[in-house]
């Protein structure tokens, strides 16, 4: 997979390193000469250019990229790069970094963004996930398709504990994608039984989140007449 990263700062270089370790081709683009540190990521391609300029993106052969990551520290730049990547070059997957949470509402399909990553939101979500069991936590927003990546840790005495995945009447527009059980990462199949303490990751439409949370809640005693 070929990936272009706009922004060769600490964030961009870190992403590049991870992708290279996983066998992908990576191009780092930055207009600041001081950011071109080939020795830090020697296996990447480097381009000294303004990623907001069509001529620069032509030189980068962006149409050959499977993914573009807008990872600069400037939200305006990230939006422009995302829009150009999607509309001018037809890049299938565009991921954009959100620096200022107040700008998060802009990072959607209208600007060519498929996945918006807000560091403050992600950090707060991870804090919530660490202290809450039984509560649904939003980890990531997918702009395309109006869906979120959400997490819920199945609490003790949960109504669905012991139930097979295939026997659960899941809400519409939700998909169970991963079960994290201790040190194991499981790809769920219909025969797997849910266990208390399972960390469940779903891709779900926002309108279904409350229904999903109710479904996975603890057993409630029936009120007596």
TrEMBL record:
PANTHER family: POTASSIUM CHANNEL PROTEIN 2-RELATED-RELATED, TRK SYSTEM POTASSIUM UPTAKE PROTEIN TRKA. This is Trk system potassium uptake protein TrkA. Keywords: Ion transport, NAD, Potassium, Potassium transport, Transport. Residues 1-117 form the RCK N-terminal domain. It comes from the Bacteria. The lineage of its organism: Bacteria, Bacillati, Actinomycetota, Actinomycetes, Kitasatosporales. Residues 137-218 form the RCK C-terminal domain. The keyword Ion transport applies. InterPro entries: K_uptake_TrkA, NAD(P)-bd_dom_sf, RCK_C, RCK_C_sf, RCK_N, Trk_Ktr_HKT_K-transport.
